[in-house]
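pinging the channel bc i need a second pair of eyes. not urgent but kinda urgent?? the chain im working w is below, pasted from the shared doc
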Amino acid sequence: MAKGLYKSVEYIYSCHNNYQDKAMGEFGFWPLLHLVLVVYAAVQILGSSASILKKIIWVLIVLVFPLLGLIVWFFIGPGTPKK
């Protein structure tokens, strides 16, 4: 009986994994969204009026501290865009 239950659970788990792989791909939605936000932040930082050193520091903050860096950049970013 335990062997049959194990096979049932294994089957359900494999179906769930197949559905998840088809629905979200290999990486999933959240990592893809994070990548888009990091690229957007980097473009905005590099296009800002801040000095080169500040731009480098901000890009490193966003890359090294993924979620926290994006949040901090959003609220107290490096400056206004160049005109």
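so The chain has one domain: 2-76. and Residues 50 and 79 are 6 Å apart (CA to CA). — does that match what u expected or am i reading it wrong
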